[in-house]
Amino acid sequence: MTLSLLLEAGSSGVKIVSGCRYRLTPSLSRAILVPAMDNRLLILYFVLGGAVVASITYFGSRGQGLIAAIVSMLPTVSLVTLVSIYHTGGAEPAISYFRGMLIVLPVWILYVVSQILLLPRLGLVPSLAIGITVYLVGVFAITRFVH
């Protein structure tokens, strides 16, 4: 689909054109096409995420940690996210999402290892606080390095 947009000098903001939002940059050097998001999909994402969390909690609380881990690592959330990103932005943003996942994977592994080591020694709240802090500091460091 080809859409034309007339940019007026000094204009900025967002305009809706044929179901897509065009964000006009203040410099008027370019207009960025951002396809409109179908808000009904947010309900699907919410239900799917809730079902995954409920399943993980169910199996984990019954001592079936391996099954809970398998459910948590199923690519259901990333699959829905991929479809959503691809549908609204195309292949490049979807590839960027997966590259980002790979970039933060080592930090996520540090978070998981910190929980394995600290949870039995410190309890839930302190181990989560330390683990999340490690994760956030690691992600901040990686994003500063990558960008």
Number of helices: 5
Identify the overall geometry: flat
Biggest sheet strand order reads 1-2-3
Class by alpha and beta content: mainly alpha
Estimated radius of gyration: 21 Å
- Please give the alpha-carbon distance between the first and last residues: 32 Å
Give the averaged pLDDT, no decimals. 81
Question: Low-confidence runs (pLDDT<50, min 5 residues)?
Answer: 1-12, 14-18
Query: Largest sheet, if any?
Result: 3 strands, antiparallel
- Work out the helicity level: 55-70%
Strand content: 5-15%
Give the strand tally: 3
Strand/helix succession: EEEHHHHH
Domains (count): 3
Account of the protein in words:
The N terminus is likely disordered. The chain is mainly α. It has three domains: 36 residues, no CATH class; 51 residues; 47 residues. A three-stranded antiparallel sheet has the order 1-2-3, with no helix packed on it. It has five helices and three strands; from the N terminus they run βββααααα. The longest helix is centred in the last third of the chain and has 32 residues.
Helix-strand layout with pairing:
Blueprint: E1 13-17, E2 20-24, E3 31-35, H1 40-61, H2 65-73, H3 76-89, H4 91-122, H5 124-146
Antiparallel strand pairs: 1-2, 2-3
Helix pairs in contact: 1-2, 1-3, 3-4, 4-5
